[in-house]
Fold each of these.
Amino acid sequence: MASPVFFSDMRTEQGKNLIDKVRRLWQHAGFEKIIAPEDLVAVKLHFGEKGNLAYLNPVLVREIVERIKAKQGKPFLTDTNTLYVGSRSDAVSHLETAITNGFAYAVVSAPLIIADGLRGKDYQTVEVNLPRFKEVKIGSAIYFADALVCLSHFKGHELTGFGGTLKNLGMGCGAPSGKQMMHADVLPEVKEEKCLGCGKCQRWCPAGAITIADKKARIDAAKCIGCGECTVTCTSRAIKPSFKTEPEVLQEKIVEYACGALKGKEGKVAFFNFVMNVSPECDCNSWNDAALVGDVGILASYDPVALDQASLDLVNAQPPLPGTRLDGRSGAADKFLAVSGYDGSHQLKYAEEIGLGSRKYELIKV
Ligand code: SF4
Ligand code: SF4
């Protein structure tokens, strides 16, 4: 059965600006029914890396906050810390970056909570029993929220072709050690020249796989379960994050994490995709290259798979913009595949296969 996807294009006029359009999408989709009085509502988004300018507009986010407050819900804006070293890899830097990027209370009218805590260790293990993972690690503030409104910037991605709701949910709700498990199939290695022998990794290793000898950490590969805790614990970066996995495997792992993020929230979730500033790579970069196509609009749905499928189809129906990475590739059927080399549609197929949603949709213009 086709899932409804509500869509507003970018055309505006008196009484119908983009903020009005966000409100109308919320109302047409009937999202108010997912909020009960006193609900703690996680508004999951990406605050943008420092230097990136393609992330969601905080003023549009505020309109969602106002809708939640109108139902006496208690919204908070949230994201998890990153695996790589950047401006969002611990809660202090993350909050500073978010505020620098415009997500101050004065603008968004809601507090910010980093879902997995100061150093990404505050997560809950959620049983999913899926082919890639039996359990996943979801940031506590998202796990314990009563409802979830997921706001995603739909754009290209250097490893998954494109990133939308599934990516925002899966990679975006996972704690850094979970992100490591999604990103790599290889076991961690210690770079001895960087190791200080401090023993922090040993204390956090749940498998007892690490010993310290001659002031250097050693990993016993036979005991290591690849949980990624040592990688995110070592502040000397002696155990570096790894990004070695097959592209399709990565997409399947992200989808399974998305299932974990939604578990227990049936009837309490809503999704928006903002198909604007369609940059070729992730908002995790401290820059954003020229948008591949013109701004398309805003989409809303209860079905994360239908929402991403509709967003992908709309982008691929646009003419390519000149002076972008699509130069010389103007005939490409899948623009994200053309610029990244990765077919992101695998995440949609896999998500449908495991019952997360439907790739069939009915686009309803609002
Ligand atoms: S946490 Fe890092 S520096 Fe400390 S012992 Fe482990 S690998 Fe070495
Ligand atoms: S990946 Fe996990 S199990 Fe393996 S050494 Fe690191 S902390 Fe221990």
Amino acid sequence: MDKNHNELSRRQFLRRLGIGSASALSLMALGPLQTFATAATPAAAPSSPRRGDDAPASGSDDIKMTYRRQNGSGENISLLGFGMMRLPREQEEVNRLVDYAIAHGVNYFDTAPMYGGGRNEAVTGAALSRHPREKYYVATKMSNQNQQLWSFGKSKEMYENSFRQLRVDYIDYYLLHSIGGGGMDALRGRFIDNGLLDFLVGERQAGRIRHLGFSYHGDVRVFDYLLDHHDEYHWDFVQIQMNYVDWRHAGRGRRRSDADAEYLYGRLEKLGIQAVVMEPIRGGGLANVADDIRRQLAEVRPDDSPATWGFRWVGSFPNILTTLSGMNRMEHLEENVRTFSPLQPCSDAENQILASIADQMAGFPTIGCTTCAYCMPCPYGVDIPGNFAFYNAAVTAGQLPLPAPTADDYGQRQEAFIAAYREALPAEKRATACTDCGQCLSKCPQQIRIPNQMSRLVELTRKRRA
Ligand code: SF4
Ligand code: SF4
């Protein structure tokens, strides 16, 4: 650990974490949000883009967005998609973001019934419906993860409600949400045994669903099963988590059955199924990188942020239909639009730099939390993503891991960490409130052993007896 880290004051530490005296939730906002979007179908786009060969395509000279052509329908989808998972509270602010996105060529908007505590589909529908229907493509999902929603009747109700919330009479991209969690048993219960998947295939035939796909987290056997049955279901697209760290380090700290993005992308490419990418900057972790990594990137492209590097890396792959980013602040949206207008693919040398950085980052003891909040609310009040975001920021800032308890500076470093933690989170939201009830475990798409990690945090903040 370098000397500077040892000398960080509490205030300096907070500043380095980027949170000042604010809640840890503000850390989450630093990350890119993810979901989907829509937009005007631009004129000609390359039919089979190769790496580095995407032509900007739009009906307007002002729009420089890069587009990808959807294999089946031929429609042009903006390579930057708008993830509507975390949105501003005010509808007017959401409208402003959506208007800017559409005006700059973003045309894919992704939401789900469970986003925003059940609010975001309606907010998304209200914002998008102010635009001509042909100007946007909307994606939403069957979020029936909760076992109480597994019946055909309840699931169908959720499906039909999505049309009302989104104010549409057809859904452009419809996904089986987060398959993989709960393994094959959950897949059978949610979609197969109740006849729901057959129903959704029928809805596609009827034209109420234009493209049918699924989003995947967790047990790779479910991913493989659905692709093994591609001849039966004819998947139009599949949504996967992909970024330059998860390319070869996805399973770190999670279950063995998790697969690297390299495997997921490779299987889809071989089958000719385009990928929609979520978590392109890993829940914000690749935007808020350690100073040393930031320096390595700036030496090559001084004007690009770490987030821009992450988006460029993903967008450089030819079998990506769109890259979802959650953009709840105008400055994030503006920067991302610049990155994709048009996309400058990564060179081989840049890919090598990012591969090396991924290897370095894989050695960091971060928790693989993307701050998606699927695990919330915790019945005992723990702010689960807030705790993990704080912990990860401390690792990124070099404050963690703490040195051995016998080290001279152990007490000073731990004091700084504890003070920052207390300032970021009120007592009732800290890890100490966790009762180990386990209710959050099955909800986490990243398969994080949440109560175990809470115990680690408690241990970190427990002062050593003199
Ligand atoms: S295990 Fe802990 S964090 Fe998870 S729901 Fe229970 S109390 Fe909350
Ligand atoms: S712990 Fe899991 S479910 Fe909760 S916010 Fe993090 S990644 Fe999402």
